[in-house]
Specification:
The chain has 332 residues and is of the alpha+beta class. The chain folds into two domains: 8-146, Aminotransferase class 4, branched-chain amino acid transferase, N-terminal domain (D-amino Acid Aminotransferase, Chain A, domain 1, 2-Layer Sandwich), CATH 3.30.470.10; 153-316, D-amino Acid Aminotransferase, Chain A, domain 2 (Alpha-Beta Barrel), CATH 3.20.10.10. 30% of the residues lie in helices and 25% in strands. The chain has eleven helices and 16 strands. The chain has helices at 8-11, 52-55, 74-87, 96-110, 153-156, 171-174, 182-193, 237-251, 265-269, 301-316, 326-331; strands at 27-32, 37-39, 59-67, 70-72, 115-122, 139-146, 159-163, 198-202, 208-210, 215-219, 224-227, 257-260, 273-278, 282-289, 292-293, 321-323. Strands 7, 8, 9, 10, 11, 12, 13, 14 and 15 form a nine-stranded mixed beta sheet that branches. α8 crosses α10. The longest helix has 16 residues, at 301-316.
Length: 332
């Protein structure tokens, strides 16, 4: 094999072969504290190989969405980012207000009103690929991405799930939204290979924990909305919003109560309704789990009510909607 020594021009040409994008790219803008600014060319959205987030998975992240020019539930994600950093002794490169300002301006410069946003905080560069994080300086990366559109059948017909053979993270690591997602990736692959939409991992006691990127909940025959104990799973921001929204269903008599408790597979199999929650999909009904039909095998009434409440929340709940300063950036 004849290997070439490449130049900067080979890598960063206007249309590099390794980073071919269609006319409408999926990546709109990226901020890097390492570079000290924002790039809009996807070919420049890079992280050095010797950043510990790349070669050790030593970093944390948050993923959330912008709806009609407003970032949804922003403060909850920043709070969880801060908690993840605290748990793994990772110093944030900026305070939360500065991270918030950087993120808002990155979205404004991207110029899109509906999109996904990801914040990454890495341990940083240092120690020549050593495992040791000592002497590394943390870095912040913010990426603005194309809005994800779930398959329509998720909402009309419902989704399927399997129990994953991949063990979930131990409770300490489950609380950290880290960049070490190998178990999650393997569970996702397992679902794909078995023809299911989602895989559900079990905790150390054999109870339902979470999907690769989804929180899980059920409605039992007593009309109790149940979700797994949060000491064994990541505290999903979408799940916690669902819990808050479900209070309206309790008040209306559509649910009896809400409970965080252990959920066995048998209890899930026999539930009236089962759900998956995550930022990109809000709430999706699971109508088949391990080839067993859940409830009537169709999206149920609690799902329909929760979906409507989420849709209202995304556009009308001013307490959770942070406006993006498009005009300020344009005039600046």
């Amino acid at each position: 094999m004849d290997l070439r020594v490449l130049s900067r021009e080979d890598i960063f040409s206007p249309r590099p072969e390794w980073r071919f994008e269609p006319e409408a790219p999926d990546y709109f803008a990226m901020y890097s504290s390492l570079w000290g600014g924002i790039v809009k060319d996807p070919a420049l959205m890079l992280i050095p190989l010797d950043d510990h987030m790349v070669h050790r998975g030593d970093g944390i992240f948050e993923a959330f969405k912008c709806v009609k020019g407003h970032i949804y539930n922003f403060d909850a994600h920043l709070s969880r980012l801060e908690n993840s950093a605290r748990l793994i002794s990772l110093n944030l490169p900026f305070d939360l207000e500065t991270i918030k300002e950087i993120t808002l301006k990155t979205v404004a410069i991207a110029g899109v009103k509906d999109c996904r946003i990801r914040i990454y905080v890495s341990r940083g560069l240092g120690n020549a690929f050593s495992c040791s994080p000592v002497d590394c300086r943390s870095q912040l990366y913010v990426v603005v991405l194309k809005e994800s559109v779930p398959p329509p059948y998720y909402y009309t017909d419902g989704a399927s799930a399997i129990t994953s053979c991949i063990p979930t993270k131990a409770s300490f690591f489950a609380q950290v939204k880290s960049c070490n997602y190998l178990p999650n990736a393997l569970a996702h692959l397992e679902a794909h290979e078995k023809g299911a939409d989602f895989a559900i991992m079990l905790d150390q006691q054999g109870y339902l924990a979470e999907g690769p990127t989804q929180s899980i909940a059920i409605v039992d025959h007593q009309k109790i909305f149940k979700y797994p104990r949060l000491d064994n799973t990541l505290k999903g921001t979408t799940l916690l919003r669902a819990v808050a929204l479900a209070e309206e269903l309790v008040e209306a008599g559509e649910l009896k109560s809400i409970s965080s408790s252990d959920i066995s597979r048998e209890e899930a199999y026999n539930s009236l309704e089962m759900f998956a929650f995550t930022v990109g999909i809000a709430v999706v009904p699971i109508v088949k789990y391990d080839e067993k039909v859940i409830g009537t095998g169709k999206p149920g009434p609690v799902f329909r009510r929760l979906l409507k409440l989420f849709q209202r929340d995304y556009t009308e709940n001013r307490e959770l909607l942070t406006p993006v300063p498009y005009d300020e950036v344009a005039n600046g």
